[in-house]
Amino acid sequence: MIKNLLILTTYGQIFYSQEFQKTEDAVDIALTAGLMSAIYSMATETQKERISEFELVTSRIVFQEEKSDLLFVITVDKRMDAKDTEDLLNRIARRFYERYGEVRIDGLVLTEFEKDANEIIYEKLWYLDTQKRKFRIWDYLATLFVALTISWYSLLIFGSPPIKGFVDFDIRTFIWDNLIGKLTSPVALLLNILYLIGVVAIPAIAVYLLFKFTHVKDTFRFSRDYLARPTRASYAELLPNYFLINILTSFIVYVSFMMFAGAFFVELKARPLFPGSLIEGFTEDFDFTNFDKSDVGDQMLLGLLAWFTWVFVFPLIYSLLLGEKKWGKIYKNAVFIASIAIYIYIICYIFIGVKYLEGIGFHPGQAIYPYERKQISYQIFSSIPLNVFFYGFLLYLGLGVTRVTPSRTRFPSLLAVGIAIYLTLTLQGIVFSIFYSGA
Fold it and tell me: Are strands 70-77 and 14-19 parallel, antiparallel or unpaired?
């Protein structure tokens, strides 16, 4: 993502240069520095304002002038997030002044600054280091364990699904009721507290240690960075294949939240995109002894189909539309981005779905619900928020995927995303209608 760094004066004296992407032809640093200072000075004198950057076909050259006529110039991939570039320049400039102050020695080249520059760059863009890592099965296992722990806590917080023959299980019955029942017996109370610590605290401690001593944190760290700013999606090209395990973790978390957070109602009864397009008739409890007749089983299947189409079908359509010869690379990166964006999907479907509906007084699991959803208040307080969050998911997905790779054809990336979203929704509608027809 970073091609080279140059620290010089506005009149062309070089203090430091570093090349991050090797090219076939050697670059004349003195000539480059002279050109940069000339461009900067010409823009300042003729336009009476400083130049901040200019663009090439695949690169951006960013300038930042500091005190004492020092000029920090960084060349980056055109897709690199602009705020990350600005932050890197600020950090490098600050570290440079901390070490050397306002240097003014002709011919001085500060080669020892390479250690500082690498530290700053690799701390900010930690993705650059990941491809050097060797395969470690422990990282896969640790990531799976963390995903299962998240699923365990979702069960504890949201409670068990409506399965016939199963006792209700949630944080209230598991913790609060048990503690209240043991107040009269100090020994039983102590043992119960120790037991609760075991099932609640031990998984948390295990996850903390796994994040500390393995690379499992990186898959979640990239997810956090992407959700904070989708324009970082292009960094997916820097990630090794083992980061694709996030597809599996998103699947595990998605399914567990569907089961334990009531999302089997949301998938059909509060499906976003079309306000008021709610499907009735899926209210039966999950019965293992009669699975074919269980409505929840059908709802879970539709939910998984929705996950599959967004994570795999959408990126496939997008990659094919771009016509890239190395479409496999685009597809891999787009699948990875989609698997991260699915966390927004979880929020929109579950927390802003059934939980939101129940919180404002609409109850999808009750017989009166078909009448409730015809009220104008339902449309205002339920359908609109659901659509807003669903379009938020599409926004994150679209912004992310368009940053994965530039279009190498005349077919614009943004148009490809729009068509891919439309075709994915159409495919979902066809598949869902097959199930609806038998509801």
Answer: unpaired
Query: Taking the CA of residue 94 as centre, how many other CA atoms within 13 Å lie in the half-sphere pointing to its CB?
Result: 7
Report the candidate in 5, 205, 221 with the shortest Cα–Cα distance to residue 96.
Answer: 5
Instruction: Quote the tokens at residue 255.
Output: 């399914």
Give the span between the Cα atoms of 230 and 224, in whole angstroms: 10
State how far the Cα of 145 lies from the Cα of 51, in Å rounded to an integer.
50
Strand partners, 70: 9
pLDDT tens figures, 44-101 = 666 666 777 777 777 888 877 777 678 888 888 888 888 998 999 899 988 888 888 7
Domain boundary assignment for the chain: 2-125, 218-437
49: Cα within 13 Å, side-chain hemisphere: 3
CA distance 63 to 55: 12
For residue 137, CA distances in Å to 144, 181, 242 come to 11, 44, 10
Q: What is the pLDDT of residues 349-373, one digit of tens each?
A: 777 777 777 777 777 666 676 677 7
Task: Tell me how crowded residue 208 is: count the other CB atoms within 10 A of its CB.
Answer: 10
Cβ–Cβ under 8 Å, residues 430 and 259:
no
Q: Return the structure tokens found at 275.
A: 């306000």
Phi/psi at 15 (nearest 5 deg)? -110, -30
The structure's pTM equals 0.81
**Phi and psi torsions of 59, nearest 5°:** -135, 160
Tokens representing residue 40 in the block? 């900067």
CATH of 2-125, one of 3.30.450.70, 3.40.50.920, 2.60.120.260, 3.10.350.10: 3.30.450.70
Residue 367: DSSP 8-state: T
Question: 176-208: per-residue pLDDT in tens?
Answer: 666 666 677 777 777 777 877 888 888 899 999
Spatial distance between the Cα atoms of 1 and 3, rounded to a whole number of angstroms: 6
Alpha carbon separation from 243 to 127, 207, 216, 331 (Å, rounded) = 11, 18, 9, 14
**How far is residue 242's CA from residue 336's CA, in Å, rounded to a whole number?**
11
Looking at the DSSP assignment, which residues form a beta bridge with residue 71? Answer: 8, 65
